[in-house]
Amino acid sequence: MAKESTPSPTLVGDIPIVDFSKFLHGDEEQKRTVAKQIDRAFRETGFVYLIGHGIGPDRVSEAFKWSNKFFALPTSIKMLAPHPPGGSHHRGYSGLGQEKISQELYSKSAISKAREVADVKESFESGNINDPMQPNLWVPESHIPGFRGFMESFFWDCSSLIHTLLSTLSIALDVPTPGLSPTHAQSLFQLRLLHYPSLPSRLLRTNAKTRINAHSDFGTLTLLFQDSVGGLEIQDPDPAKKGVWRTVPPVKDAVLVNVGDLMARWSNGRWRSTMHRVGAPPRQRGGAGGRDEEEEEMCEPRYSIPFFATADMDTVIDALPGCWDDEHPKLYEPVTAWEYVQMRMAALYE
C-alpha cells in the first residue's frame, strides 16, 4: 500500500486540477496516470477539479440558464412540485429556509437550536426517471416548457461521467473486471439545482444566516458545477487544523468531484469524505469600513448544480481491493448500501 510516484497536477488552493480528457481519449498509460492523480487527490483532500470531463461548457451553461429560469418563477408555481415532507423522498422544490443542514449535531436541543438559523437557499431535486422508489416531481410543462426534457437529458450526462469515474477508480485500485461501475447499475443518483439569493453579507459573517452549514456528502461521489460567484470552503484535512477552512474557488469549465461518506467507508478510509460548507464569497468575508457601508454590502446571488451518486441498495460495502492488507486491516464490517443508509438516517433523526 505504499504510495507510487505520480505526476503532480496544477493546484488551486489545496485541490489539484486533473485533465480528464487524457483518460477519456488517452492510451492505457495515460489512463493509469489520471487514475493515480485522482487517487492521490482523494487521499489528500477528498476533492479534485476535472477539466476535459466530457460534459461540454455549452451544456453546463444551458443547465445554469434553466436553473435561473426555474428559480425566477413565482413561488406559487414552484410549489406545484413541492418536496415531500421528511427525508425519504428527495424530489421536487424546497423553498427558502425549508432545509437545514445539522450534521454532527445529535441531541434534539442542539438540532433545534441550529435550525433557528435558516439556510438561505432554495433547491430543486430530480433523479433517474426509472427509479420506482423516488418518482420525479415536475412543475407543469406549460409553466416552463423544455425544463423537464433538458434536466432529464443532463441527468444522463452526469450519470455517464459518474460511471466513467468509477472505472477510473477501479484502475487506481486494480479492482478486477468489471470494476465498480456495475455496483451503481441502477444509477440511483440525484440532480440538484441550488439558488442562494442575495442577502446582506453581515448576516453571514455574524452567523445570523447561513447558506449551507458544514457537512459531508452521503453517498459515493458528488459532481459539483459552480457559477463564478464562489463561497464554497472545505475543512483543512489536517486533523490538527480542524477549525481551519480553505477556499474552493470556481475553475472555468471544470467540475469539482468529491468523495462521499459511503465511498470513504468502502475505501477503508483511504479516501477522505471532507467536511465542506457555503458562506460569503471570499471578497465579502472581511468586515466593511463603516457601519452604514457594512449594512448595505450585499452578497451576490449564487447558483450551483451538485449531482449525488450512491451505490445500488443491495451492493455489499466491504473494503475494496487495494485498501487493506495485513498492515492495514479492515476498519468496518461489511454492510449493504441499504443498511448503511438506514444506519445513517437513524443517527440523523433519532
TrEMBL record:
Keyword Metal-binding set for record: yes
Keyword Transcription regulation assigned: no
Pfam families linked to this entry: 2OG-FeII_Oxy, DIOX_N
Gene Ontology MF terms in the entry: metal ion binding; oxidoreductase activity
Superkingdom field: Eukaryota
GO biological process, one term: small molecule biosynthetic process
Region Disordered, annotated ranges: 275-296
Record family assignment: Belongs to the iron/ascorbate-dependent oxidoreductase family.
Protein name: Clavaminate synthase-like protein
